[in-house]
Amino acid sequence: MTESEQEERARLLRAWNGAGRRLAPVPGREPIGERLARLAGEGTGAYDLTDWTDQYGNEDGIVGELERRTAAALGTEAAAFFPTGTMAQQAALRCWAGRTGNDIVALHPMAHPVRWERDALRQLAGLRVVHPTEAPRLPTAAEVRDVAEPFGSLALELPLREAGFVLPSWEELTDTVTAARDRDAVVHFDGARLWECATHFGRSLPEIASLADTVYVSFYKSLGGLSGAALAGPSAVVQEAAAWRHRYGGALFQQWPAALAALVGLDRELPRLPEYVAHAALVAQALHESLAASGVPWWLVWPRVPHTHQFQVWLPYGARELTDAGARQAEETGTLLFRRWTEPAGAPPGMSMHEVTVAGPGLSWSAEDVRAAVGAFLGFLDAARGTASGQGTETGAGRDSGPVAE
């Protein structure tokens, strides 16, 4: 990272953390001293802080307590703590490959192991991958039945983040799982964000987890932890995966800070997720209405009604200028609406995307608050671009293009 990039990063962090109003906490972006103090304060209600720190995740310590509470929350026989979800899923899928005698994993090309793990399933785990569909949604039962090759495992990311944190209906999910079983395959849930899926499905976490043979969950993506994940399922499989955890270098000497933060998340954030999901619908609707009335030539709020407390917003401008406009809004008004924008691979040229998260701080936002924040953001964007609102974009789109609403 160059010096100018470091300065820009520091500037963005100051702007984001300095904003008094925001839709969600800025994840992982907090001064070290403040985070340690917060962990110590919140941790007193989650675990006995007079107990000893763990060593290699001993079962009678804080890591063991986290594993037991995770298994209880998901209704599984056992759970094992992993330092990363990448490691947890590789361990699970290679265990299933050995047990089924089939090293092929069926999963979506947008799924995390394909998109973000540098071909680790093949390079490290020796597994092969097939894709039931390339559509930006979870595969259907028919698509699973039509996979040309026999596969040993079907991995489903719930929700599918890259497609907009989307979920199937409960009936579609159960049909897809049944289709995999009909092909003698096991089912693994990539549940990095499984915690917030219960509202959409109208089912409890144990009911959802019971559909799969194993489930991976994250402790920091929705629960606000420091890091870490868990693999949950039958005791025998979890024990085998724990052996692979050791082989992968995941048996860390001390993991108590991550485990304590995870326990805090289970206590404090997990019960509030349904409220976040409900309020995300209000925020998405207000964003939709604001952009529809703004004169912006092309835009997208997706899904139209969020399936979880996260969703996407797309605008026809460069990621750098959009990120800068959001930072200027935070600096000058104290309101943080959008943080960092990206230009995803495969997206149309000139289009940028932002992942909106609605959590505790966002519950106080009314629809009018959202509309006012959108108007201010577009004003900062226009000022940065040196153009009046609605005069088109550098991509060549004009007002006649109309908004893309769904």
TrEMBL record:
<feature type="region of interest" description="Disordered">
    <location>
        <begin position="387"/>
        <end position="406"/>
    </location>
</feature>
<dbReference type="GO" id="GO:0008732">
    <property type="term" value="F:L-allo-threonine aldolase activity"/>
</dbReference>
<dbReference type="GO" id="GO:0005829">
    <property type="term" value="C:cytosol"/>
</dbReference>
<feature type="domain" description="Aromatic amino acid beta-eliminating lyase/threonine aldolase">
    <location>
        <begin position="55"/>
        <end position="289"/>
    </location>
</feature>
<dbReference type="Pfam" id="PF01212">
    <property type="entry name" value="Beta_elim_lyase"/>
</dbReference>
<protein>
    <submittedName>
        <fullName>Threonine aldolase</fullName>
    </submittedName>
</protein>
<comment type="similarity">
    <text>Belongs to the threonine aldolase family.</text>
</comment>
<dbReference type="InterPro" id="IPR015424">
    <property type="entry name" value="PyrdxlP-dep_Trfase"/>
</dbReference>
<keyword id="KW-0663">Pyridoxal phosphate</keyword>
<dbReference type="InterPro" id="IPR015421">
    <property type="entry name" value="PyrdxlP-dep_Trfase_major"/>
</dbReference>
<dbReference type="GO" id="GO:0006545">
    <property type="term" value="P:glycine biosynthetic process"/>
</dbReference>
<dbReference type="InterPro" id="IPR001597">
    <property type="entry name" value="ArAA_b-elim_lyase/Thr_aldolase"/>
</dbReference>
<dbReference type="GO" id="GO:0006567">
    <property type="term" value="P:L-threonine catabolic process"/>
</dbReference>
<dbReference type="InterPro" id="IPR015422">
    <property type="entry name" value="PyrdxlP-dep_Trfase_small"/>
</dbReference>
